[in-house]
Design brief:
alpha/beta, Glutaredoxin, 5-stranded mixed sheet, two-stranded antiparallel sheet, 7 strands, elongated
């Protein structure tokens, strides 16, 4: 019996570790669970990228279904995503930008050069609002309903495939519900 325990305990530990690793391999690293799903967007009051004197707060965003896109000029993936965002905005998708830990002049130059897909572009220089949103890195995009409730979070660049398969049906459903 003692011999049985000596060999079975390490085998049992190995089996438990192997099960966790196997489960982890099947997970999508882009699907980072957010504790904010189903909750209101955190309250904030920040200036816009375009004008430091123009303040935007979370209440200003109520009444519309929109994508909240966290971006920065130093973010390589944000550059890869930008053309898609411009295309979506030209198609009528409302996108709010949250410029994260960036330089205002660089952000303005980026938008002038590449196009501005944002209906409002919030300047989060210190990154506090992004922290409240649970942002891990840029780009990250949230789907927010007209009451300010977050319904979806995507880490990484938005692709047209993701938009068409996942976000568009959710946006249409949220707009129908009001």
């Amino acid at each position: 019996m003692n011999r049985y325990l000596r060999y079975s305990i390490p085998l049992l530990i190995f089996a438990v570790i192997a099960a966790f690793l196997y489960k982890g391999l099947g997970m999508n690293p882009r699907e980072i669970p957010s504790p904010l799903i189903g909750k209101s967007i955190p309250e904030f009051s920040l200036p816009t990228v375009e004008n430091a004197a123009t303040m935007v707060n979370s209440e200003n965003l109520l009444g519309k279904v929109y994508l909240l896109n966290v971006w920065a000029t130093w973010c390589v993936s944000c550059r890869a995503e930008h053309e898609t965002l411009v295309h979506l905005s030209r198609s009528g998708v409302e996108i709010v930008g949250l410029n994260w830990k960036d330089d205002r002049d660089k952000a303005l130059a980026w938008l002038n050069r590449l196009g501005d897909p944002y209906i409002i572009n919030i300047f989060d220089q210190k990154g506090r609002t992004a922290i409240d949103l649970g942002v891990y890195g840029a780009p990250e995009t949230f789907l927010v309903d007209s009451k300010g409730v977050i319904h979806y979070k995507h880490a990484g660049p938005i692709s047209m495939e993701l938009f068409n398969k996942t976000l568009l049906p959710m946006i249409e459903d949220l707009k129908r519900k009001g």
